[in-house]
Amino acid sequence: MKKRIISLLIAVLLLLTACQGKQDYLSGTPTGDAALDESVEALLTEVCEGSDTPLLPVYDWLLTELKYRAAPGEGVEEFTDEITISLAAEALSKRRCDCDGEAALTAVLLRRMGYDAEIVRGQFLRGEGGEWVDHAWVRATVDGVVCHFDPLYDAHFTAGDTVSCFMASDGDMAATHRWQ
Question: Which domains does the chain have, with CATH numbers?
């Protein structure tokens, strides 16, 4: 518990440092898909307007607004730009998606905010001593520090500790996630 609190404090300090003076939450690159870019810009404007720390309201939006929907088949093998755009657009319009869709939308939002973000394929541990389950989430560089974002895991598997995968370090994520 003490380690979790220290990690959370470090994440908050990183967030405040990264966002200090960063009022332009639309400083990143659009996807090139006009409809998706318009929706992303509207969402970021609505969620981030007036916030000194826009990453947190975006993460909160992902936590509360997206509902999990299991995919009928295998997960995405490779997140090309085309697949990422398609998954993000569907997740944003339907507000229902699996981990691939949520990771794609998270990456698109972070990239539009000006952060380098990549989708990670790996696994997460379902429950104490449970099974490893295929999963996708995002790693991004915020103020020169690589950190993880996994709102789907936080929304469904943290028993109310909804910020354990918000700007989490590799070490913190390794307790419940594994990747190459």
Answer: 2-12+34-179 (3.10.620.30)
